[in-house]
Amino acid sequence: MAKPISIEVWNPSGKYRVVSTKPMPGTRWIRLLTDQDCRVEICTEKKTILSVEDIIALIGNKCDGVIGQLTEDWGEVLFSALRRAGGTAFSNMAVGYNNVDVNAANKYGVAVGNTPGVLTETTAELAASLSLAAARRIVEADQFMRAGLYDGWLPNLFVGNLLKGQTVGVIGAGRIGSAYARMMIEGFKMNLIYYDLYQATRLEKFVTAYGQFLKANGEQPVTWKRAATMEDVLREADVISLHPVLDKTTYHLINKERLSIMKKDAVLVNASRGPVIDEAALVEHLKLNPMFRVGLDVFEEEPLMKPGLAEQKNAVVVPHIASASKWTREGMATLAALNVLGKIKGYPVWSDPNSIETFLNESSQPPPASPSIVNAKQLGLPSSKL
Ligand SMILES: NC(=O)C1=CN([C@@H]2O[C@H](COP(=O)(O)OP(=O)(O)OC[C@H]3O[C@@H](n4cnc5c(N)ncnc54)[C@H](O)[C@@H]3O)[C@@H](O)[C@H]2O)C=CC1
Ligand SMILES: O=C(O)C(=O)CO
Fold first, then answer.
1. For the chain: N or C, fewer Cβ within 10 A?
2. Does the ipTM exceed 0.90?
3. What is the position in ligand 1's atom list of the atom closest to the CA of 98?
4. Whose CA is nearest to atom 16 of ligand 1?
5. Nearest C-alpha to atom 14 of ligand 1 is from which residue?
6. pLDDT digits (tens, 9 = 90+) for 106-149
């Protein structure tokens, strides 16, 4: 017999059963659910990544909705199990939902929520941190200090790259890519080149206005360019940060060939999804080009790194923590819980998933709506007029 899964239960007499596959930061998300007659069951298993079988056991025979994680494989098997248990609501505690088969969810009439907006700045700040850490060799220098190797200032010690006046390249200039671009432009007076399927009009206007401000102050103005091809970004930029969604069009977007056209001393940052880079090709490139540096938050086969990556001094690696600020993680939990609650209660879907502040305001009741349901149209869910 399978070992029972350990859980923590809130409001045992609640009418609706909502399962969270992981403990999540804060308590507001729990309160919002229990106040609305939900029994909340939180999986407290020590195991980091739950299997499909573990989640089927959690869903059980009666489950109205599940809050899940980006490490879980939400496809046909789980959505059919959820539907059999009477459930129609699922939310990822993440903005990216490449772990979710939305077609399967549609087939079983399950709403799929995600958590955009609340993590935009936090994620962009981590991408900016990785850019700086890689450009200025901060991790290498830290290790050198701790190893007791510092025996005095030297003209050639840990020389890195100056950002001011250089070009920042952004691939995927959506919410996070645009926020990152602004940080690098405003903070370090970098010029912008970006590639996206859509024009980033607000970002372009910001750079134009900031350039005019600098010029009026007698400083060198910053500039922007929307690249016709991704290769243009790779050839021209000194620091390149990847922020697209992961789908068929972005899988191995950065491969051996594209790495070879980048500047030999470029900095490449990835805080989107690991498979956007062919990581084995990247390891080879790092070995052959010691001046080329990367900052990685995500990996092709998490939690693993491809062989050789950990040994490369020109790589800064952190464990998928880009959205890990307290405010953001509590906000993600709140949005995910409200996505599930909204569907269970038959609330409409918030009409602008980018404007979620009202759901995050702790001193007021959130509006009766699901903040962000990605398959609302396919399921014919009503849109909130609030
Ligand atoms: N490392 C982490 O902890 C985090 C990672 N993410 C990842 O970042 C991604 C982006 O998040 P947001 O900015 O909120 O999403 P978004 O939807 O606002 O931006 C994504 C952009 O990528 C563009 N894009 C799509 N296909 C493309 C292609 N083939 N070439 C170039 N651009 C393309 C889209 O047009 C869009 O502008 C998420 O999907 C998620 O995978 C998000 C948050 C935290
Ligand atoms: O939200 C996401 O997509 C993440 O990767 C975690 O914040």
1. N
2. yes
3. 41
4. 174
5. 175
6. 999 999 999 999 999 999 999 999 999 999 999 999 999 999 99
136 touches 161 (CB < 8 A) = yes
Task: Give the integer Cα–Cα distance in Å for 288 and 259.
Answer: 11
Phi/psi at 76 (nearest 5 deg)? -45, -50
Paired sense of beta strands 38-43 and 65-68, if any: unpaired
- Cβ pair 211, 182 in contact under 8 A: no
The label of the residue with tokens 């940052």 reads: 269
| Rounded distance from Cα 371 to ligand 2 centre (Å) | 16
Q: In the numeric block, which tokens belong to residue 130?
A: 């990785």
Atom of ligand 1 lying closest to residue 324 CA: 3
CA of 107 from ligand 2 middle (Å) equals 25
**What pTM, to 2 d.p., does this model score?**
0.98
The pLDDT tens digits of the residues spanning 350-381 come to 999 999 999 999 999 999 999 999 999 999 99
What are 366-369's contacts with CB under 8 Å, separation 24+? 366/32, 366/334, 366/338, 368/342, 369/338, 369/342
Nearest residue (CA) to ligand 2, atom 6: 94
